[in-house]
Amino acid sequence: MATELHPQAEELLHDLSASGVPPLYRQSVAEARDTYLELTVTDGEPEPVERVLETAFEGPNGSVPVRAYDPGDDGETPRSALVFYHGGGWVVGDLDTHDLAARALANAAGCVVVSVDYRRAPEHPFPAALEDCYGALEWFADDPDLGVAIDPGRIAVGGDSAGGTLAAGVALLARDRDGPDIARQLLAYPVTDHAFDTDSYTENASGYFITRGDMERFWNEYLEVDFDGAHPYVSPLCVSDLAGVAPATVLTAGFDPLRDEGRAYADRLENAGVPVTRLEYPDMIHGFLTMLADPEWDRAREAIDALANDLRDLGD
Fold first, then answer.
1. Quick one: 226 exposed, middle or buried, by C-beta within 10 A (0-12, 13-18, 19+)?
2. CATH number for the domain running over 7-312
3. For residue 123, how many other CB atoms are within 10 A of its CB?
4. Are 134 and 173 contacting, i.e. CB atoms less than 8 angstroms apart?
5. Rounded CA gap, 120 and 122, in Å?
6. Which of 1, 87, 188, 291 has a CA that sits 20 to 30 A from residue 168's CA?
7. 160, 193, 256, 283: which is the annotated catalytic residue?
8. Residue 286 catalytic?
9. Sign for the pseudo-dihedral over CA of 203, 129, 167, 37
């Protein structure tokens, strides 16, 4: 029996359709960014975190803003940490669209979360975002002065959607460049392949929040004309050898065009001997992790808690 769409997701999709807001791929870049922000922020008070710090590091092409979330503890034990890369097709999304998710992860896992405001396409096509994200890992692993002790052996990278792609790319770069150790990579419904040839792209091409048209537009914005989409740091599924990358947590959603490529990447990692935790939400849509503005979205909270479990176990 086929899995049915969760009522919470069904209601959201109905409301979006009734609102008359056009799909992202039919909006200008500025309009799409505003639309995504409106969908993900809360009108009320966000979930409290003991300390939120706005800072920046010097990236490969200038200053890169970051927002650090410290849930607090006794201050004596070095803490685990997550360097987080927001989703949004490399084009939309920012620190504010993923503020609620970062707060929830920090509190649920009891770890410091550092959210990275990397450069976005089309103003800055590949590899700008990836190099900013890798630079954030290097900066954080070098013990920046954030007022909290971090255990260098318990640093994870992670993100959702395009942010998951960037996290996978950072894990590959860390291996290939002999960079900082990564304890785990958290990949929530990641983009892993530039191709559009999966069953989930056919089954979920439209009507489930993110569409095939949106993804085609995002890819076109992210890559310069004639750039090879099979580049290993663009499409991690195209990497010939995945051995030696960090253990992974891969989350997928059933009603998501990206479902099958996320599962395929988990398969490839396992076949390469990389430990993988799979989190599957067959009744959910793409992007549901950022729907925390509505307290009734219990599936989003469940997924945050599941991801937090792996963050709590870093280094074990």
1. exposed
2. 3.40.50.1820
3. 10
4. yes
5. 6
6. 291
7. 256
8. yes
9. negative
| Known catalytic membership, residue 256 | yes
- Cα 141 to Cα 199: distance, rounded to the nearest angstrom: 39
pLDDT at 124: 97
C-alpha to C-alpha distance for 193 and 231, rounded to whole angstroms: 10
Q: Is the peptide bond before 127 cis (omega within 30 degrees of 0)?
A: yes
Token code pair at residue 283: 């009744």
User: Measured between alpha carbons, how far is residue 181 from residues 102, 142, 160 in Å?
Assistant: 22, 11, 21
Cα–Cα distance, 170 to 165 (Å, whole number):
9
Q: Quick: pLDDT tens for 257-307.
A: 999 999 999 999 999 999 999 999 999 999 999 988 888 889 999 999 999
Out of 80, 161, 200, 235, pick the active-site residue: 161
- The single residue of 70, 260, 286, 310 carrying the catalytic annotation is 286
For the chain, the residue count is 316
pTM: 0.96
State the Cα–Cα distance between residues 130 and 119, nearest whole angstrom: 9
Per-10-residue mean pLDDT of the chain, 316 residues long, equals 84 90 93 92 84 94 96 77 98 97 96 98 97 97 86 96 98 98 98 96 95 96 90 96 98 98 99 98 96 87 96 78
- For the chain, the structural domain boundaries read 7-312
Active-site annotation holds for 228: no
